[in-house]
Amino acid sequence: MMFNSTSYFILDGYLHVGTLRYLYFMLTAVTYISIVLSNVLLVVVICVNRSLHEPMYLFLCSLFVNELYGSTGLFPFLLLHILSDSHTVSVPFCFLQVFCLYTYAHVEFCNLAVMCYDRYLAICCPLQYNTRMSSNKALIFIAVVWLYSFVKFLITLCLNIRLTLCGNRLNSLYCHNYLVVKLACSDTTVNNIYGLFGVVLTVLIPLLLILFSYMKILKVCFSGSKHMRQKAVSTCSPQLVSLLNFSFGCSFEILQSRFDMSSVPTVLRIVLSLYFLVIQPLLNPLMFGMQMSKLRNAWRRVLCCKMLAGCRDAL
Fold this sequence. Notes:
The chain is mostly helical. Helices cover 78% and strands 3% of the residues. The chain has helices spanning 20-48, 55-83, 91-124, 129-132, 135-161, 177-182, 189-223, 226-258, 266-291, 293-314, and strands at 8-11, 88-90, 169-170.
């Protein structure tokens, strides 16, 4: 068992910044609070407004919950280590963080893929949409995405726990699955095979669904009316921006963990390693909350009601 090999990991990604740590702590805390408030607001708005109990908004609700889940797997840990002089983490907690961050990434990508498919049905098959994508079916899709992501990475975790490690230093700000496996001095063939299989399931299949959906949508846009093109752009552009942003962040993190990136400045490596875990949870509520008129009007009404109620209580 891995637990007999080492009891803790040392994170070498943190820099000695002296008293600037308090500034970084405040910036990180403000970022986390912003993520929590914005995502919680939109989750509550979708849940309390029956007019938003439609497949598209249910998928968005799942996306915002996932942003909260992924952020909570990183930010409290990050805040603790920014103020700490020793950057060690116990093996069980490290694997808990690995599980949270990797399932977050998996749910995010699959959720965006399902949202693309939902837009394909709405734009390309509008007459059949209500039968092919009802609210109940959307909830089933969401449950399958979350359950599948948890079970899939639970298998990865079990394969990693059986490994024997020959070191305990991780060149990262947080626990990273591939960096842990690289420390193993026992056979990792099964891990590597399952990892490749997991990449196919996690990336290739959702990517095929995304490409299929957008190809069909583009075909309809080019052959349809101006109104159809405007509808497609208004509903698909936030999803496409979110997908491209998340893919960029994940791609750099994968490259950084597998290749020598010592030629890249340290600060830039740190920023880019946190990119998909910081920018995505901030971008999604801002973009979807502002771009989608129905959702935008709903959260504005909620905030106005709260402000009016606060004013009445003050008087």
